[in-house]
Amino acid sequence: MRIALECLRQDNIHLKETVNFEDSKYLLELNFENLIYLRTEHSLIVAFGIKYNKALKWFHANSSDLQHLYKQLSGKVFFGNISSIYESKEILGSGASSKVYRVCNKLTHREFASKCIRKDYIYRREDKERYNRMIQEIELMRKLDHETIVKMIDIFEGEKSFYIILELLQGESLHSFSKKHSLTLTQIRQIINRCLQALCYLDINNIIHRDLKLENLVLNEQGKVESVKVIDFGLAIYTSCPYRQLCGTPGYIAPEMFIEKYPYTTKVDIFSLGAIFFKLLCRKPLFSGNTSDEILENNKKFLCNNYLKNCSDETIDLIKQMLQRDPNKRISASQALQHPFFGEKFTGEQGIAEESPHEIVRMFPLTKPMQVINSNDNIPDIKIQAIRGSQQSFEQSLGSNYFPSFDDDINRIRKQSDHIIE
C-alpha cells in the first residue's frame, strides 16, 4: 500500500494500493473529529489505523514512511492511543480539571510534559465553549515556533481525557523563582527582553496572549532566567477575532479590557508585561488588595501602587511607557526592545527599587497611592475567562483554569488514578 503524503497539503489523506489516487478507496479528512491510531513494535511505528465502517482498519507501510507521516500529522489531528507513543513517569501538577505529567516518548526516549484535560470538564457546557477554546489553543500553538514560547508537540484523545504534549521545561515558574531569589537588574533586564521578543513574535503572527503573569513564565533551564519561556495559551486569540471579552488574571489586566466591546489589541500584553516588570523591580504588585475582588476592582479603577525608588531614568521611562493607561500611547514590543534600558552602556546593577510605601514616583498621573499590604501571594488566583452581559456581571471562574503551572506541587505522590493511560 502507498501512503499519499503529498496529499497532506489538501487536508486529507488518500490511501490505495496503486499509484492512481483518483480512485482512492480510502479518504481521510484531516480534522479534529477523525482519530488516527498508531501501532508500535520495538520503538518503531509499524502501522496506523482509522475507523472505517465502525471498525478499526490498520494500514502497514515502511517504518520510516510511517514516522514521516506521524510527524506530518502531529498537531493536525488527534491520535487515539497515547500509550502507544508515551509512557507516564510522574505527576508534575494538578488543577481543578486537569493534571500535568512528565512523560517519555517510547520512540525517541525524550521526555515531555503532558497536559491531561478531563472531558467531563470540556463538555460540561452545552454550547461547546470550552471545547472550542481548547481547539483554538491547539490551532494557535501548532503555528508557534519560537525559542521564547513553549512548543506543542502532539495531541491525543482518550476515552476520558484530551492530552496536549508540550516540550518539558526543566525549571520552575518565575512566580516561584522570584519568591526564593532576589533578582538583579541584569536578570530582570534579561527576563523583560526575552518576554518582549515573545510578544514581538506573537504580534507578527497577530496573536494576543491575554494572560501574561509570573505564573505563565517558566524557566526552560533550572535557575537560568535568561531561558524563560511563555506558556499557557488557553485564553489566546487572533487579533482578527471579533469578540473582545474581559479575561486574564486580576492585577495584570490592561485598562482598555474593562471597556465593554473595546477593540483592544496586542498592546494588552504589553501592559501585563509592564505589571510583571513592576513586581520584579520592587517585589510588590502593581495593584493591591486583600481579596481577588479588591485586586480586580483596583485594577479596573487603575489605582496603582507607587513603590519605585532609586530606579534609573531609563528604567522609569520604559515601565511608564509600558503601563500607559491609553493603549494608543503605550509602547509596542518592537519599540520597547530598542529602548535605552537594554542599551550596552546601561549595564550597572543599581536600580532595584527599595521597599518604601512613602516614596511616590510621578509615573502614574491622576492616580493615588494605596495603602500597602504585605503580599498578594496568599490570595487564590482567579482567571477571568469570559464576560457576559454588563461589566458588573462578568463571570469569575475560581480554579477553572485547566492548565496549571508546571511547578505546582511537584512532589505529590502519584496515585493509581493519576496514570496517564486510560
UniProtKB/TrEMBL annotation:
Q: Which InterPro entries match?
A: Kinase-like_dom_sf, Prot_kinase_dom, Protein_kinase_ATP_BS, Ser/Thr_kinase_AS
The alphabetical list of record keywords is: ATP-binding, Kinase, Nucleotide-binding, Serine/threonine-protein kinase, Transferase
Which residues hold ATP?
K119
> What does the entry list under GO cellular component?
nucleus
Q: Does the keyword Transferase apply?
A: yes
Provide any one GO MF term from the record.
protein serine/threonine kinase activity
Q: Which residues form the Protein kinase domain?
A: 86-342
Q: PROSITE patterns annotated for this entry?
A: PROTEIN_KINASE_ATP, PROTEIN_KINASE_DOM, PROTEIN_KINASE_ST
Protein family per UniProt: Belongs to the protein kinase superfamily.
Q: What is this protein called?
A: Protein kinase domain-containing protein
